[in-house]
Amino acid sequence: MPDTKHDSERLVRGFLGSWQDRDLDVICEAFADDAVYHNVPVAPITGISGIRTIFRAFLDAFAEAKLDIVTLAAEPGLVLVERIDYFTMNDGRKVVLPVNGVFEVRGGKIVRFSDYFDLADFERQSGFKL
Fold this sequence. Notes:
alpha+beta, Nuclear Transport Factor 2, Chain: A, Nuclear transport factor 2 family protein, LEH, NTF2-like_dom_sf
């Protein structure tokens, strides 16, 4: 059964909202086993194991994360999201990052997630090197 516009949107909204609760299993359950995660300024990560590793590193570095949706457009199997990501580092520093994300959905799972953002801005604010 093909992914509907509504199902694709609900999956992506759920994934983005799940960061606030910081539960790695819940965050990762949105992804297919062979998914690709691409922070476009750096090399893509293929497979849920690698995705779990990078998401764990993010969770370990940030005390809080909130991914606020500014604009969302959905079609069956495709969701485009303009958002502002708010992170509080463990040392209290704040990161505010404009991001555009592209999500490809198939079979009720994210199969490709590409984020477009200013890498230098993120690294300057966070001290985190990608």
